[in-house]
Amino acid sequence: MTVMPGRRERKKAATRRKIADAALGLFLERGYDAVGIRDVAAEADVAVTTLFSHFASKEALVFEQDQDFERRLVGAATERGPHEPLIPALRREIHALVRHCTTEEAAPIWRMVDQTPSLREYEESMRMRHADALARAIAADLGLTQTTTVCRAVARFVVEAFSLAREAADPPTAVEEVFTMIEAAWEAARPCAQG
Amino acid sequence: MTVMPGRRERKKAATRRKIADAALGLFLERGYDAVGIRDVAAEADVAVTTLFSHFASKEALVFEQDQDFERRLVGAATERGPHEPLIPALRREIHALVRHCTTEEAAPIWRMVDQTPSLREYEESMRMRHADALARAIAADLGLTQTTTVCRAVARFVVEAFSLAREAADPPTAVEEVFTMIEAAWEAARPCAQG
DNA sequence: TGCAAAACACTAACCGTTAGTGTTAGGTTC
DNA sequence: GAACCTAACACTAACGGTTAGTGTTTTGCA
Lengths: 195, 195
Hints:
The structure is a homodimer of 195-residue chains. Chain A has two domains: 7-57, Homeodomain-like (Arc Repressor Mutant, subunit A, Orthogonal Bundle), CATH 1.10.10.60; 66-193, Tetracycline Repressor, domain 2. By secondary structure, chain A is mainly alpha-helical. Chain A starts with 6 loop residues before the first helix and ends in a 6-residue tail after the last helix. Helices cover 73% and strands 0% of the residues of chain A. At the A-B interface, helix 8, helix 9 and helix 10 of A face helix 8, helix 9 and helix 10 of B. The first copy, chain A, binds a DNA duplex (30 and 30 nucleotides) through residues 4, 6-8, 11-12, 15, 36-38, 46-50, 52-53, 57-58.
């Protein structure tokens, strides 16, 4: 069974992007709450059920581009240089991620997220999922087969660093401040990190 | 304008409790997702609109008893002994809160929360609100008029401690582990906590 | 007793989401 | 190329949480 790199996959991806683009356009133009799922489907010239076969929820339409957040975070932990310590590697990645979402093009989206309770909730939930994945990566990095409380805690602190920095007046400085705390927390906990 | 301690307030509180009790009973009996709002309203012998005038959402029905979480957390920070440091006071309160929700009577509710995505999301959102309130309390304790990144960070770490401990196999030990980290983080950040 | 406000009830709907049921198009096999 | 299978898509109808609109009762107070 090969990977089917054919026209079908391209068409599917095109439909998905068409929906996401239509959604983002309408959301930014009229506001998230003022746009209904049926509006988005109509704008993308697609049935409502088709929309929901590509996106699990209305909120997911907004975070379509941020699917790689978790991948990048986990990658920063697992694929770092052989002698680079964990926390600085994560700090570097968080810096990059925060920079990325304060870009000219991404900023309006995040402004919308911050103003929409339902989107905030969704993003908080995503962060917890990302933290879980990061915790597993950190545990594996320590040679553990399961996560410990310390792994889970440091992972959560790291994703909170992203969240706090994103909302701060001076994001890079905020990343530095929070990572100073995380570094200290990690050093204090390393003795019992192994379980 | 006095505080209207009359019959009206008592009746309102009684209706509220009647609804919450009916909801909790049905949720624990049949499962959260298997019970509809209309079922709850019927069981409480109340109109659906009345239910929603007492509770903002279906999820809020479950967390009715935990309205004092934030109050207790903020209280631990603001009303502690004159010479007791901040972090130990918070640690003591988190211990108490975790103990409280692992009680025989509260445990089934939290089991239901953990198994229901919509309730998990709601609780995460509550935690963020509680963290904001705690951050303001901590800032005020430091003589600041606004919260800083460090205040917000330590507040989030504290509410995460609750969350992590609640899910841990050995909650009290988990509280200790996470607070060891928080203590170190706080010490490292104290120099720049003032802004 | 009369009045204003609050609590409550009822209907009907809105909106996100899903089930059920086809229909079409793409890829696979012979 | 014909037969066939699957995935993508469309359509209708509904479910369940939530709210608007409207009216009725209850309560506190003058």
